[in-house]
Amino acid sequence: MEVCYQLPVLPLDRPVPKHVLSRRGAISFSSSSSLFGAPDPRQLSQRRGAISYDSSDQTALYIRMLGDVRVRSQVGFEPERRSSHPYLCIDFRTLHTRLGCGSTAASSAPERRVHRLLSFQRYLHSSRLLRGLPQQIPLHILDEDYTGQARCMLEKVGNWNFDIFLFDRLTNGNGLITLTFHLLNQYGLVELFQLDMVKLWRFLVMVQEDYHSDNPYHNAVHAADVTQAMYCYLQEPMLAKYLTSYDILLGLVAAATHDLDHPGVNQPFLIKTDHYLATLYRNTSVLENHHWKSAVGLLRETGLFSHLPVEDSLNMERELGSLILATDISRQNEYLSRFRTHLDQDNLCLSNASHRHFILQMALKCADICNPCRPWELSKQWSEKVTEEFFQQGDIEKKHKLEVSPLCDREKNTVGNIQIGFMTYVAEPLFAEWARFSDTRLSQTMLGHMGLNKASWGGLQQEQTSVSEEAEPSTAGTDTEDVAARREGNTATAAGGTSSKEIPQGNRES
């Protein structure tokens, strides 16, 4: 007998239980006093920070491809040095495990197993469901009893002025999960691809958890912002007319995972400190490769696409990698030149799958660095966050007697200089070409915001210059082009902060 069920609902008016966010087994429901019951210990897979595996699952061991997996001793974890630099040790994040008491043992009963799959709302109707009565309940992202601002904001998710900071607060820090699920459901992709609701929810929870909340910029809020921007681009007439459901699914998943497990430092930092990821990927698109492989690892671990033909699943993983790798800022000119050539020759044919994929790459690149194109109130916040991330990397470099990377010295650079250089040499050329491709109100709005933001930073810069004119000239001010290249070189998406703590070995950039 088939039982219809809905993904567990996380109420927005209360903190998310830590054991719900832990990635040990699927989210479950029990009749205990708490909304979500504890996972069955027999189903737990061993996890170490962003690296997970099951001793009997050779596929999971293969997927990670990071050399991070180590056998867990009975007494716990011991730090293991993975590079020549003494402070770059693995960060084994402690996961909260709440093994059930009393009620978990009773979960062996058939009816309990059924209830574990149900959300609270579905559980209330379980008697009707089990009697086989038709129950037409639409999928809901938010609790049915919650009719606040978060739901209202989702109704305007295609608005370019969408405030992702506010939305993340309204969802108790679950903005990436809620937004991504809403978009997948809005497009009808959950039903079309027959995605298992529990697997999908678990995948999104794990994705959000793998972003480092202590990064000022490269965190889950940035990923949600890029996903929302990607949605705006997918709605553009030039794309909406030709994109298939497969393209849309791929684009949204790529946006949500494009910076997965970002360490808050850039690729040059990983290379000069002999980080094991730099060695693993031979100093080439180090962070982007790690983001991609981490995303594939979560897809396979949750089995989100395991019901699809193997060939289709593998092809989706490859194309996901192609999109994420395109966010490598060091390849900016390569993609931009190719884009210009297509536009000059007017030979883009979006009925061609390869051309559609290329446009998805360009769309993700735009979404990744669209912060200067947002309204000033939002753009300014992102600018300050990405700059703080750079400065935190510089603080680490100073602390350990390393050469301070460009843009990372808080004593020689300012937010204004970094932003003006980035807009001039990175953002403006890209969005000018995007406007040629899709000359719409949105494209003109983005260019307009960027012009105003650039002028605003210029005005603030003048004020600062008049005050510190006698001080030592700013390195960023004398080489604006280098500033721009470094800002995104430091992180392929104008972000990736890391605190002055030890760097977790298993992060990435983009």
From TrEMBL:
Keywords: cAMP, Hydrolase, Metal-binding. Residues 142-464 form the PDEase domain. Pathway: Purine metabolism; 3',5'-cyclic AMP degradation; AMP from 3',5'-cyclic AMP: step 1/1. One of its GO terms (molecular function) is 3',5'-cyclic-AMP phosphodiesterase activity. Binds 2 divalent metal cations per subunit. Site 1 may preferentially bind zinc ions, while site 2 has a preference for magnesium and/or manganese ions. It catalyses: 3',5'-cyclic AMP + H2O = AMP + H(+). Residues 459-510 are annotated as: Disordered. Its cofactor is a divalent metal cation. Residues 459-468, 490-502 have a biased composition (Polar residues). This is Phosphodiesterase.
